[in-house]
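Appendix B, Record 12. Input sequence as logged:
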Amino acid sequence: VDMIGDTRLRVTNEISSTPWVFNVLKKTATRLGYEEIFAGPRAHILDDHSPFQQIGIPGAVLIDLKFGPGWTSNAYWHTEKDDIDKISPNSIEAIGHIVIESLGELSKGEG
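Logged structural output:
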C-alpha cells in the first residue's frame, strides 16, 4: 500500500502484481462499493512488493500514481505541496477496509 491518501484516489492496475492477489483486492473493493477506486490506468511498477515476488511470495501493490490537482496531475508527489492538507481520511479508510476484508480470501492462496 503506497500513496493512497489522494482525495481523488485511483489505484493503478499494476500489471506486475500477482494477478490472483490483485484480483482478490479488486473484487473485494467492488463488493464493498469502492469499485471506482480501482479505475486507475494500467502500468508496470517496480516497488516494495517486487523483491518478495522475485523470491516467490505473491504480492500486489495498491498505489495511486497521480497525486495532484485533477485526475491526471502528479504535481504534489515528492514536492513541498505533498502535505497533510492533501490527504483524504476517506481514501485511507477505504483502502484499509479493502485490505482487511480481503485477508480471509488472500490467506487461502491461489485457487
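The first strand starts at residue 13 and ends at 14.
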